[in-house]
Amino acid sequence: MISIPGYQIKEIIFESSNSFVYRALKEDSGLHVVIKMLKGEYPKPERIVRFRREYETLKGIDLKGVIKVHGFESYKNSYAIILEDFGAYSLKRILERKRITLGEFLKLTISITEILNH
Predict the structure, then answer these.
(1) Residue 105 · residue 95 · CB < 8 Å
(2) How far apart are CA 116 and CA 65, in angstroms?
(3) What does each of the 118 residues of the chain score in pLDDT, given as a tens digit?
(4) What share of the chain is helix, strand, coil (3-state, %, to 5)?
(5) Could you tell me which residues come within 8 angstroms of residue 49 by beta carbon, excluding any fewer than 6 positions away?
(6) Which residues are within 8 A (CB) of 34 and not within 5 positions of it... i.e. 6 or more apart?
């Protein structure tokens, strides 16, 4: 598992073609966080620009249901977005481990749609 100075990595939550998402503990404050990190030792400049834009967009949103941002940090030759950790898992992981009813699915999609509407 990866080692990031100042953080104790607990587990990997998600991996995509562009990034890793880890659950971690910030050692100096004891704050539970999620770290989203670009993949690759030297990400392309356009990926870094998109990643920074993602951070700036999230930083400017203060809505219930939207994850809170704690910071943007450089790590080696890449970058990481530090996010709040409220104990969630990716929807993909949840669906792989549990069948949900049509009612649960509709409730979830309505919640997501309402958040996106705001």
Answers:
(1) no
(2) 9
(3) 678 889 999 999 888 888 999 999 999 999 999 999 998 888 899 999 999 999 999 999 888 888 899 999 988 888 999 999 988 777 777 778 878 888 988 998 898 899 888 8
(4) 30, 35, 35
(5) none
(6) 13, 21, 22, 23, 24, 67, 82, 83, 84, 85
